[in-house]
Write a structure and sequence with these properties.
It is an enzyme of class 2 (transferase). There is one protein chain. Helix 5 (about 110-120) links the parallel strand 2 (about 100-105) and strand 3. It is built from 11 helices and 6 strands. The protein has one domain: Vaccinia Virus protein VP39 (Rossmann fold), CATH 3.40.50. The chain starts with 16 loop residues before the first helix and ends with a strand. It is globular and about 50 Å long. By secondary structure, it is of the alpha/beta class. It has helices at about 15-25, 30-45, 50-70, 85-95, 110-120, 140-145, 145-150, 175-185, 205-220, 230-235, 260-265; strands at about 75, 100-105, 130, 160-165, 190-195, 270-275. Strands 3-2-1-4-5-6 form a 6-stranded mixed β-sheet. Bound molecules: S-adenosylmethionine. S-adenosylmethionine binds near residues 56, 107 and 163.
Length: about 280
């Protein structure tokens, strides 16, 4: 499948993280430059596709768990190009028809934004789900945005999803300060869910070298990426209690089916966790 004409403002000369990730997941909202980059990355690090699927599956399990725990508001930062298992689809599947919930997707990438808007319109979900095209490094503007204000009541619990987005926030962007701002905005009972690329000490050396080449490849894109250790990620939860099973590898957070050998290989390369604000 080929992507439609690029919306205004889309740079199809340079790969973008949103569109390349769409390609990893088997989507169609990507251009030749993204596919070429994706193929190059896959050669460098063959686990990229399985880990992307694991990441998405973790996010889906978190949304279901949050709904089961009574949370009805979802803010998905760096939501990406819509693909199978979007937050509003999980909500629709899981929640009885007479119960209300709201979803805000946030992404600054024009293709992700345009495609999210189209899907929400087409699925008649725009009254309870919306797309905010903003940079998550500017939380003030995000909170003040008309769509955020229409859909989110910050005095009630929110499930704040930061799924494979924080590794695009570099050290110069003060990730610790940014996380503190988001944590402060949340009401007690809110959940903060994070996934982040890493390279644990127990990674096999050949695989560890592949991941480092993968990070090098992203230097040339609009979204340079950073790996972080658990010691760097853990403080972002602000000391809030982590829900069981704590900070874990993607396949190990409340798995809903047996872990395959290939999925098991992804363990040393991403951390995930969910904390609840006391
Ligand atoms: C790898 S995708 C992850 C998509 C989705 N969260 C998931 O895990 O399935 C990362 C997304 O974050 C977006 N992103 C990166 N930095 C961002 C920023 N500063 N503000 C808003 N979106 C950002 C990218 O455009 C991309 O769509």
């Amino acid at each position: 499948m080929t992507a439609p004409d690029a919306p205004a403002g889309v740079d199809v000369e340079k790969p973008s993280a949103a569109r390349v990730y769409d390609w990893y997941l088997g989507g169609s909202q990507n251009w030749a430059v993204d596919r070429e980059f994706g193929r190059r990355v896959e050669k460098v690090w063959p686990l990229i596709r399985p880990i992307s699927r694991q990441n998405r599956a973790f996010m889906n399990r978190v949304v279901r768990a949050a709904l089961d725990a009574g949370i009805r508001q979802f803010v998905d930062l760096g939501s990406g190009v819509p693909t199978a298992g979007n937050v509003h689809e999980i909500v629709r599947e899981r929640l009885p028809a007479d119960e209300r919930a709201s979803v805000v997707y946030v992404d600054y990438e024009p293709v992700a934004a345009a495609h999210s808007r189209v899907i929400l319109e087409r699925e008649h979900a725009s009254d309870w789900a919306g797309l905010v095209q903003r940079d998550i490094r500017d939380p003030k503007a995000l909170f003040a945005d008309e769509t955020t204000r229409r859909l989110v009541d910050w005095s009630e619990p929110v499930c704040l999803l930061m799924i494979t987005v924080l590794h695009f926030i570099g050290p110069d962007d003060d990730p610790d300060g940014l996380m503190a701002t988001y944590r402060a905005k949340l009401a007690p009972g809110s959940w903060l869910a994070v996934t982040h690329g890493t390279c644990r000490d127990d990674a096999p050396p050949d695989r560890a070298a592949e991941v480092k080449s993968f990070i090098d490849a992203y230097r040339d894109t609009s979204n340079p990426a950073y790996l972080r250790s658990d010691a760097e990620i853990r403080p972002w939860f602000g000391g809030w209690p982590l829900l069981d099973p704590g900070l874990s590898a993607l396949p190990d957070w409340r798995p809903d089916r047996p872990v395959s050998a290939l999925e098991a290989e992804t363990r040393p390369f991403a951390w995930c966790g969910v904390a609840e604000k006391p």
